[in-house]
Amino acid sequence: xxxxxxxxxxxxxxxxxxxxxxxxxxxxxxxxxxxxxxxxxxxxxxxxxxxxxxxxxxxxxxxxxxxxxxxxxxxxxxxxxxxxxxxxxxxxxxxxxxxxxxxxxxxxxxxx
Length: 112
What we know:
By secondary structure, this protein is of the alpha+beta class. The protein has one domain (9-110): Jelly Rolls, CATH 2.60.120. It has helices at residues 42-46, 68-77, 79-110; strands at 9-14, 16-22, 28-35, 39-40, 54-57, 62-66. The strands form 2 sheets. The chain has a 3-stranded antiparallel beta sheet.
């Protein structure tokens, strides 16, 4: 939820969602769409900031929640798993930045 300070990570087990925010004119704006197997909440897991967007289901979805403190303890207990999860989060975030940038450029091009 927008403005939430929750630091949990969520994985989409089934379905798809939009990541949205409300602009200054009180209109809903879509940032991107996420699909089965993708995660959200990971930025706030890494950097404790107030959430700036919210998740909106596009169809029936199932979400797995990984509570911050439980996941943090698990990562502290197993360095190998920690490295794999960090690499996976890095890969996921990098791909999302590329995809979101492409969508942004396309939106700018469409408005010309």
